[in-house]
Amino acid sequence: MRLKQFPIVILLSLFHFLSYSQPHTKLWNGKKCAVVLTYDDALNIHLDKVIPALNAFNFKGTFYLIGSSPAVTNRIPEWRKAAAQGHELGNHTLNHPCDGTLPGRDWVGNENDLTRYTVARAVNEIRINNAFLKAIDGKNERTFAYPCGDFTIHDTLYYNQLKNDFVGARGVASGFLPAKNVDLTNISAFIEDGTTAAQMIAQVEEAEKANSFIVFLFHGVGGEHPMNISLEEHQKLLEYLKKREKDIWVTTMVEVAKYIRQSQQ
Protein backbone atom coordinates (compact mmCIF):
# COMPACT_ATOMS: atom_id res chain seq x y z
CA MET A 1 0.00 0.00 0.00
CA ARG A 2 2.76 2.40 0.88
CA LEU A 3 4.58 1.62 -2.36
CA LYS A 4 1.47 2.43 -4.39
CA GLN A 5 0.94 5.74 -2.56
CA PHE A 6 4.52 6.88 -2.93
CA PRO A 7 4.31 8.03 -6.60
CA ILE A 8 1.05 9.85 -5.85
CA VAL A 9 2.72 11.79 -3.04
CA ILE A 10 5.55 12.72 -5.35
CA LEU A 11 3.16 13.87 -8.08
CA LEU A 12 1.11 15.95 -5.63
CA SER A 13 4.26 17.57 -4.27
CA LEU A 14 5.43 18.39 -7.79
CA PHE A 15 2.03 19.84 -8.65
CA HIS A 16 2.04 22.11 -5.61
CA PHE A 17 5.62 23.20 -6.34
CA LEU A 18 4.78 24.15 -9.91
CA SER A 19 1.51 25.80 -8.92
CA TYR A 20 3.02 28.04 -6.29
CA SER A 21 6.55 28.65 -7.51
CA GLN A 22 5.94 29.26 -11.20
CA PRO A 23 3.98 32.55 -10.84
CA HIS A 24 6.71 33.87 -8.56
CA THR A 25 9.49 33.11 -11.03
CA LYS A 26 7.78 34.28 -14.23
CA LEU A 27 6.21 37.54 -13.13
CA TRP A 28 7.79 39.85 -15.68
CA ASN A 29 6.40 39.33 -19.15
CA GLY A 30 7.00 35.60 -18.76
CA LYS A 31 10.51 36.08 -17.34
CA LYS A 32 12.04 36.07 -13.86
CA CYS A 33 12.77 39.78 -13.63
CA ALA A 34 12.89 42.95 -15.69
CA VAL A 35 15.85 45.23 -16.35
CA VAL A 36 15.49 48.81 -17.57
CA LEU A 37 18.52 50.70 -18.86
CA THR A 38 17.99 54.45 -18.51
CA TYR A 39 20.38 57.24 -19.52
CA ASP A 40 20.00 60.82 -18.28
CA ASP A 41 20.82 64.29 -19.54
CA ALA A 42 20.93 63.78 -23.32
CA LEU A 43 24.65 63.29 -23.88
CA ASN A 44 26.40 62.98 -27.22
CA ILE A 45 27.99 59.77 -26.03
CA HIS A 46 24.54 58.22 -25.75
CA LEU A 47 24.11 58.60 -29.50
CA ASP A 48 27.71 57.88 -30.40
CA LYS A 49 28.45 54.89 -28.15
CA VAL A 50 25.51 53.69 -26.07
CA ILE A 51 22.82 53.28 -28.71
CA PRO A 52 25.13 51.36 -31.08
CA ALA A 53 26.09 49.08 -28.16
CA LEU A 54 22.43 48.45 -27.29
CA ASN A 55 21.54 47.86 -30.93
CA ALA A 56 24.26 45.24 -31.23
CA PHE A 57 22.41 43.16 -28.63
CA ASN A 58 18.93 44.15 -29.83
CA PHE A 59 18.26 45.88 -26.51
CA LYS A 60 16.12 49.00 -26.12
CA GLY A 61 17.05 51.78 -23.72
CA THR A 62 15.30 54.81 -22.26
CA PHE A 63 17.00 58.15 -22.84
CA TYR A 64 15.79 61.04 -20.70
CA LEU A 65 16.21 64.13 -22.84
CA ILE A 66 16.57 67.74 -21.75
CA GLY A 67 14.81 69.72 -24.46
CA SER A 68 17.20 72.66 -24.39
CA SER A 69 20.35 70.51 -24.57
CA PRO A 70 22.51 71.10 -27.68
CA ALA A 71 23.00 67.32 -27.84
CA VAL A 72 19.26 67.17 -28.58
CA THR A 73 18.61 70.28 -30.66
CA ASN A 74 21.68 69.74 -32.85
CA ARG A 75 21.05 66.04 -33.42
CA ILE A 76 17.29 65.67 -33.85
CA PRO A 77 17.50 63.29 -36.86
CA GLU A 78 19.68 60.90 -34.84
CA TRP A 79 17.27 60.89 -31.89
CA ARG A 80 14.40 60.32 -34.32
CA LYS A 81 16.30 57.33 -35.74
CA ALA A 82 16.90 55.99 -32.22
CA ALA A 83 13.18 56.22 -31.46
CA ALA A 84 12.38 54.41 -34.71
CA GLN A 85 14.71 51.63 -33.57
CA GLY A 86 12.59 51.19 -30.44
CA HIS A 87 14.44 53.29 -27.87
CA GLU A 88 12.31 55.46 -25.61
CA LEU A 89 12.80 59.22 -25.56
CA GLY A 90 11.82 60.15 -22.02
CA ASN A 91 11.10 63.59 -20.60
CA HIS A 92 13.79 65.09 -18.36
CA THR A 93 12.25 68.59 -18.53
CA LEU A 94 13.07 71.50 -20.79
CA ASN A 95 15.84 73.04 -18.68
CA HIS A 96 16.70 70.49 -15.97
CA PRO A 97 15.84 72.62 -12.89
CA CYS A 98 17.18 71.40 -9.53
CA ASP A 99 16.97 72.65 -5.96
CA GLY A 100 20.00 74.91 -5.70
CA THR A 101 19.72 75.28 -1.92
CA LEU A 102 20.81 71.72 -1.20
CA PRO A 103 24.41 70.81 -0.29
CA GLY A 104 26.68 70.24 -3.27
CA ARG A 105 24.42 72.16 -5.65
CA ASP A 106 26.72 75.12 -6.29
CA TRP A 107 26.55 74.28 -10.00
CA VAL A 108 22.83 75.15 -10.15
CA GLY A 109 22.36 78.62 -11.63
CA ASN A 110 19.59 81.01 -10.65
CA GLU A 111 17.73 80.41 -13.90
CA ASN A 112 17.65 76.65 -13.26
CA ASP A 113 17.02 76.75 -9.52
CA LEU A 114 13.82 74.81 -8.86
CA THR A 115 13.16 76.85 -5.72
CA ARG A 116 12.73 79.93 -7.94
CA TYR A 117 10.13 78.15 -10.09
CA THR A 118 6.39 78.21 -9.67
CA VAL A 119 4.54 74.93 -10.06
CA ALA A 120 2.82 76.37 -13.12
CA ARG A 121 6.17 77.14 -14.76
CA ALA A 122 7.53 73.65 -14.07
CA VAL A 123 4.40 71.98 -15.43
CA ASN A 124 4.39 74.24 -18.50
CA GLU A 125 8.05 73.54 -19.34
CA ILE A 126 7.58 69.80 -18.94
CA ARG A 127 4.58 69.85 -21.26
CA ILE A 128 6.51 71.91 -23.79
CA ASN A 129 9.22 69.28 -23.69
CA ASN A 130 6.60 66.57 -24.21
CA ALA A 131 5.37 68.38 -27.32
CA PHE A 132 8.97 68.69 -28.54
CA LEU A 133 9.63 64.98 -27.98
CA LYS A 134 6.43 64.04 -29.79
CA ALA A 135 7.59 66.15 -32.74
CA ILE A 136 10.71 63.96 -32.79
CA ASP A 137 9.22 60.48 -32.27
CA GLY A 138 5.48 60.92 -32.90
CA LYS A 139 4.60 59.08 -29.68
CA ASN A 140 2.00 59.89 -27.05
CA GLU A 141 3.18 57.51 -24.30
CA ARG A 142 6.40 58.18 -22.42
CA THR A 143 7.82 58.42 -18.92
CA PHE A 144 9.27 61.26 -16.87
CA ALA A 145 12.46 61.46 -14.80
CA TYR A 146 12.85 64.00 -11.98
CA PRO A 147 15.96 66.16 -12.48
CA CYS A 148 18.28 65.54 -9.53
CA GLY A 149 15.53 63.47 -7.95
CA ASP A 150 13.83 66.66 -6.70
CA PHE A 151 10.08 66.23 -6.31
CA THR A 152 8.80 69.43 -4.77
CA ILE A 153 8.56 73.17 -5.28
CA HIS A 154 7.98 74.82 -1.91
CA ASP A 155 6.57 71.57 -0.47
CA THR A 156 4.28 71.02 -3.48
CA LEU A 157 4.64 67.81 -5.47
CA TYR A 158 4.61 69.32 -8.94
CA TYR A 159 4.21 65.95 -10.67
CA ASN A 160 0.71 65.65 -9.20
CA GLN A 161 -0.46 67.90 -12.02
CA LEU A 162 1.26 65.71 -14.62
CA LYS A 163 0.04 62.22 -13.73
CA ASN A 164 -2.19 62.06 -16.78
CA ASP A 165 0.64 63.21 -19.07
CA PHE A 166 2.88 60.20 -18.42
CA VAL A 167 2.74 56.46 -17.94
CA GLY A 168 5.03 56.80 -14.93
CA ALA A 169 7.87 58.77 -13.35
CA ARG A 170 11.31 57.48 -12.41
CA GLY A 171 12.81 58.58 -9.12
CA VAL A 172 16.27 57.99 -7.64
CA ALA A 173 15.64 55.84 -4.54
CA SER A 174 16.79 52.24 -4.93
CA GLY A 175 14.78 49.20 -3.93
CA PHE A 176 13.27 45.91 -5.06
CA LEU A 177 9.48 45.94 -4.95
CA PRO A 178 6.81 43.59 -6.24
CA ALA A 179 4.83 45.11 -9.10
CA LYS A 180 1.70 45.53 -6.98
CA ASN A 181 3.58 47.80 -4.54
CA VAL A 182 5.30 50.07 -7.06
CA ASP A 183 4.46 53.77 -6.87
CA LEU A 184 4.30 54.81 -10.52
CA THR A 185 4.92 58.44 -9.51
CA ASN A 186 8.28 57.44 -8.01
CA ILE A 187 9.68 54.31 -9.65
CA SER A 188 12.83 53.11 -7.93
CA ALA A 189 16.21 53.27 -9.67
CA PHE A 190 19.84 52.48 -8.97
CA ILE A 191 22.28 55.32 -9.69
CA GLU A 192 25.48 53.96 -11.24
CA ASP A 193 28.65 56.01 -10.80
CA GLY A 194 32.02 54.32 -11.07
CA THR A 195 30.25 50.99 -10.76
CA THR A 196 31.76 47.79 -12.10
CA ALA A 197 29.94 45.22 -14.18
CA ALA A 198 30.27 42.73 -11.32
CA GLN A 199 28.47 45.12 -8.99
CA MET A 200 25.70 45.78 -11.51
CA ILE A 201 25.28 42.09 -12.24
CA ALA A 202 24.95 41.47 -8.49
CA GLN A 203 22.14 44.04 -8.42
CA VAL A 204 20.37 42.23 -11.27
CA GLU A 205 20.66 38.97 -9.36
CA GLU A 206 19.20 40.60 -6.25
CA ALA A 207 16.24 41.81 -8.30
CA GLU A 208 15.77 38.30 -9.64
CA LYS A 209 15.84 36.78 -6.15
CA ALA A 210 13.23 39.31 -5.05
CA ASN A 211 10.98 38.52 -8.06
CA SER A 212 11.29 42.20 -8.83
CA PHE A 213 12.81 44.52 -11.43
CA ILE A 214 15.72 46.91 -11.57
CA VAL A 215 16.09 50.28 -13.25
CA PHE A 216 19.67 51.33 -13.94
CA LEU A 217 20.26 55.09 -13.91
CA PHE A 218 23.26 56.05 -16.00
CA HIS A 219 24.70 59.41 -16.98
CA GLY A 220 28.11 59.29 -18.62
CA VAL A 221 29.12 55.99 -20.19
CA GLY A 222 32.73 56.43 -21.14
CA GLY A 223 32.84 60.13 -20.23
CA GLU A 224 31.03 63.43 -20.86
CA HIS A 225 29.57 63.61 -17.34
CA PRO A 226 30.94 63.73 -13.76
CA MET A 227 28.77 60.71 -12.93
CA ASN A 228 30.22 58.02 -15.16
CA ILE A 229 30.83 54.33 -15.73
CA SER A 230 33.29 52.97 -18.23
CA LEU A 231 32.26 51.73 -21.66
CA GLU A 232 33.97 48.43 -20.89
CA GLU A 233 31.92 47.80 -17.73
CA HIS A 234 28.74 48.82 -19.52
CA GLN A 235 29.59 46.37 -22.32
CA LYS A 236 30.14 43.55 -19.83
CA LEU A 237 26.72 44.22 -18.31
CA LEU A 238 25.09 44.01 -21.74
CA GLU A 239 26.91 40.76 -22.47
CA TYR A 240 25.62 39.27 -19.21
CA LEU A 241 22.06 40.40 -19.94
CA LYS A 242 22.23 38.85 -23.40
CA LYS A 243 23.37 35.53 -21.95
CA ARG A 244 20.46 35.68 -19.47
CA GLU A 245 17.90 36.76 -22.05
CA LYS A 246 15.80 33.65 -21.45
CA ASP A 247 15.16 34.74 -17.85
CA ILE A 248 15.55 38.52 -17.96
CA TRP A 249 13.25 40.96 -19.74
CA VAL A 250 15.35 43.92 -20.92
CA THR A 251 13.00 46.69 -21.99
CA THR A 252 12.18 50.39 -21.75
CA MET A 253 10.83 52.32 -18.80
CA VAL A 254 7.54 53.02 -20.57
CA GLU A 255 6.96 49.33 -21.24
CA VAL A 256 7.72 48.30 -17.66
CA ALA A 257 5.52 51.10 -16.30
CA LYS A 258 2.65 49.97 -18.56
CA TYR A 259 3.17 46.38 -17.44
CA ILE A 260 3.13 47.40 -13.77
CA ARG A 261 0.03 49.56 -14.23
CA GLN A 262 -1.79 46.64 -15.84
CA SER A 263 -0.74 44.27 -13.05
CA GLN A 264 -2.12 46.67 -10.43
CA GLN A 265 -5.60 46.77 -11.98
UniProtKB/TrEMBL annotation:
- Show the taxonomic lineage: Bacteria, Pseudomonadati, Bacteroidota, Flavobacteriia, Flavobacteriales
Task: Specify the NodB homology domain's residue ranges.
Answer: 33-265
Q: Which organism is it from?
A: Flavobacterium pallidum
Listed name of the protein: Chitooligosaccharide deacetylase
- Gene Ontology biological process terms in this record: carbohydrate metabolic process
One Pfam family per UniProt: Polysacc_deac_1
Output the Gene Ontology terms for molecular function. Answer: hydrolase activity, acting on carbon-nitrogen (but not peptide) bonds
Record's keyword terms, sorted: Signal
Q: Which domain of life is it from?
A: Bacteria
